[in-house]
């Protein structure tokens, strides 16, 4: 499969790169310090059409595809992972489930506003005892008359409490069934919960190690009532739907990882050329030069991995294995490059005004979010035919 970009994709990549360098990067330290989401920057991203890239023009989108979304996420992640994940989660986890599984009425109601970037949606899967282990889900939704009554909690939910968040898609237990062996199986269903619904509370934000600008909250549902029509997809198909969402989301997340690895490389190359010690640039030292070469190899491999997965997705080919490979390769590349870049910067590498210090803090979550490293290894092992790998 060719990984060449079309002229239109190259143009998009270059435009987002320029926007990242001239608008996002100069503001990154300020907003990271204030731990605030820069809505004016999100508005500009909306004007550029970034939130609508993979959606058709008939629903307010740009009529592009998932590769284009990944290209935009990658370029933003070079300079600010928080801004990049706001786009990645807003589209891949927030809007995409509605587009993939929603009714025509749901798509007409939600996709145009989400594609414009004037509103955000979130994906409420993770709980204290559930995430990778969906059977641990405890949030319930009972159909009472023509309403779902929801009770439970969610945690680590991105884009769930912003000033422009309008929707959260949650997974909930809507019934139980007994398997032939006598064990009990939970029926999981996806339901749309608009922001501001009585009983739906966005709890205070987390105090995170990194991603300070990204919005992340726990959520509580206390007898939350939404119309029966807010069912997303088929009742009992919530597990299959969120697996599809996570598989696709990992591709864009891998592009974010690739961008972070590339950003660390670019900062380290610049510093190695400008920083003089003992009368010459530190890049002239073989150890530094070889470290930069390793960083280049990681960033290059990460980019090829997500491109392969994204192009398979767009072509309608199986991509589960490639998505997990891309996420694994990309997250490890980003973490390793952040470590090496900080080391090259020396004392300056632990000063938060420098991008490499923020990447050092931010990159750890890349090995955890949207499926930990261990989860990716389990998925890859299963795809290799080792059926005994944990599910």
The CATH topology annotation of the largest domain reads as Butyryl-CoA Dehydrogenase, subunit A, domain 3
CATH superfamily of the largest domain: Butyryl-CoA Dehydrogenase, subunit A, domain 3
Annotation, overall tally of beta strands = 10
Low-pLDDT parts are none
Shape category: globular
N-to-C order of helices and strands: HHHHHEEEEEEEEHEEHHHH
Q: How many domains would you count in the coordinates?
A: 3
Mean pLDDT: 95
Q: How far is it from the N-terminal to the C-terminal residue, by CA?
A: 30 Å
CATH architecture of the largest domain: Up-down Bundle
Helix percent reads 40-55%
Profile the largest sheet.
4 strands, mixed
Rg from C-alpha positions? 21 Å
- Give the amount of beta strand, in percent: 15-25%
Which structural category fits the helices and strands?
alpha+beta
Number of helices: 10
Order of strands, main sheet, comes to: 1-4-5-8
CATH class of the largest domain: Mainly Alpha
Protein name: Butyryl-CoA dehydrogenase
GO molecular function: acyl-CoA dehydrogenase activity; flavin adenine dinucleotide binding
Keywords: FAD, Flavoprotein, Oxidoreductase
Cofactor: FAD
